[in-house]
Amino acid sequence: MRTKAVKRKFGKGGRKCYRCGSSKGVIRKYRLFYCRRCFREVAQQIGFNKYS
Ligand SMILES: [Zn+2]
User: Fold this and answer.
1) Is residue 1 part of a domain?
2) Are 34 and 42 in contact (CB under 8 A)?
3) What pLDDT sits at residue 45?
4) How many angstroms does the Cα of residue 3 sit away from the middle of ligand 1?
5) What is the CA(44)–ligand 1 centre distance, in A?
6) What is the pLDDT of residue 7?
7) How far apart are the CA of 37 and the centre of ligand 1, in A?
8) Where are the alpha helices (DSSP H) in 1-52?
9) How many other C-beta atoms are found inside a 10 Å radius of the C-beta of residue 39?
């Protein structure tokens, strides 16, 4: 029985930014899956003030 490894789950983490789909520097804080860039913008909208 041969099994082809076709379906592979994402390697490290497998987190993708909800917003732009980037998997680089995704932040999981607050259960929000955004990359650093988007997080910064979203954070302001949501109400996380002074994110630095
Ligand atoms: Zn993003």
Assistant:
1) no
2) yes
3) 82
4) 35
5) 14
6) 61
7) 6
8) 36-46
9) 24
Q: Do the domain assignments include residue 28?
A: yes
pLDDT tens-digit series, residues 1-49: 776 655 655 555 567 888 899 988 888 876 778 898 888 887 788 776 6
Scan for tokens 């680089």, then name that residue. Answer: 24
Residue 23 is assigned to a structural domain of this protein: yes
What does the block give as tokens for 22?
Answer: 């980037």
pTM of the complete model: 0.52
Check residue 25 and give left, alpha or beta (phi > 0: left; psi -120 to 50: alpha).
left
Domain assignment of residue 24, given as a range: 14-52
**pLDDT of 20:** 93
| Gap from CA of 31 to ligand 1 centroid (Å) | 14
